[in-house]
């Protein structure tokens, strides 16, 4: 259902000159940034500062892997927040259906990263 909604959004364009927008991003990080942008008070200094400091990645970035500063927030996990019968959407799958080309590359990099960390953990 969300794929259908996003396809309706992708059809929207400026009638006189489509180059002027709106711009429809396909990568999960850009879709997430746009979603969060609509939640922030971006016309205030505080909202602009918050939006500038927000960074989103596909997968786990290399600099975070080397530092090892990753934590899990139990209250934010899906099985603690949502009821079991509720429908949910995985943003990567949604973007893959609407034209994101790099899902396979990110998945391959993630499997390589996991294999490398398992080898390092066994030593």
Beta-strand portion reads under 5%
Main sheet makeup = none
Q: Which ranges are low-confidence, i.e. pLDDT below 50, for 5 or more consecutive residues?
A: none
Shape: globular
Helical content band: 40-55%
Radius of gyration (CA) equals 18 Å
Distance between the termini: 46 Å
Total E-strand runs: 0
- Helices, by number, come to 7
Order of helices and strands: HHHHHHH
The chain-level structural class is mainly alpha
Mean pLDDT value: 86
Characterise this structure.
The structure is a single chain. It contains seven helices and no strands. The protein has 123 residues and is mainly alpha-helical. The longest helix is centred in the C-terminal third of the chain and has 20 residues. The chain is globular and about 60 Å long. The mean pLDDT is 86.
Layout of strands and helices, then pairs:
Elements: H1 2-10, H2 28-39, H3 45-53, H4 62-67, H5 78-81, H6 91-97, H7 103-122
Sum up the structure in keywords.
single chain; 123 residues; mainly alpha; globular
What's this model, at a glance?
The chain is an all-alpha fold.
């Amino acid at each position: 259902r969300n794929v259908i909604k996003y396809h309706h959004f992708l059809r929207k364009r400026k009638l006189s000159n489509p180059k002027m927008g709106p711009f429809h991003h396909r990568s999960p990080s850009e879709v997430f940034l746009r979603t969060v942008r609509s939640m922030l008070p971006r016309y205030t200094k505080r909202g602009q500062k918050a939006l500038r400091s927000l960074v989103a990645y596909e997968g786990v970035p290399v600099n975070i892997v080397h530092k090892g500063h990753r934590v899990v927030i139990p209250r934010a996990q899906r099985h603690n927040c949502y009821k079991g019968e509720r429908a949910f959407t995985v943003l990567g799958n949604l973007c893959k259906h609407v034209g994101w080309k790099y899902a396979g590359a990110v998945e391959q990099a993630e499997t390589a990263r996991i294999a490398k960390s398992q080898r390092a953990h066994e030593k």
